[in-house]
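Treating backbone geometry as a discrete language has practical consequences that deserve illustration. In the encoding step, the backbone of a single protein was reduced to a row of integers, each denoting a local shape. The amino acid sequence and the backbone structure tokens for this protein are reproduced below.
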Amino acid sequence: MPSTDSPGDARQQAIASLKGKREFTANVVSFVFVNLFMWGIWAATGMGYPWPIWVTGPWLIGMGFHAWQVYGQKPITDADIDAEMRKQAGH
């Protein structure tokens, strides 16, 4: 996310952050319900080959990346931009 130069920029950054958190929450809720349903079907049909893992595993990996995007990444600051511009000028 870009650095904040004005109160309007800070507001937009806060709104984007809140939207990201809500989207992640929706992702977690849908993951739980869909996986409970699939694993329930698996359990009710004899617990043979654990086929739901083919959905659960990749989805869980994707949720890890989504969590990193929402909670782990730090915003881009003016200092980051200045440092990158200095690097670019040095080439």
